[in-house]
Amino acid sequence: MSTAKIFIRRFKDIHTLPYVVTSLSRLIADENSTMKDFADVIKMDPVLVVRLLRLVNSPFYGLTKQVDSIGRAVAYLGMKNLHNLAITDALKSIFKEREHSRVFSRKRLWLHCAAVSICAKMIAERIFGTNGDDAYLCGILHDFGIIVESQVAPEKFLAACAACEAGMSFTALEREYLGTDHCEIGYLMTIDWNMPETIQEAVRDHHLEIGDCEPESLTGIVQIAEYITGQLGYTALADVTSRLPDHLVAHMQENMAEYKVLIEDLPEEMSNAQDLYGG
Question: Measured between alpha carbons, how far is 245 from 209 in angstroms, rounded to an integer?
Answer without folding.
Answer: 5
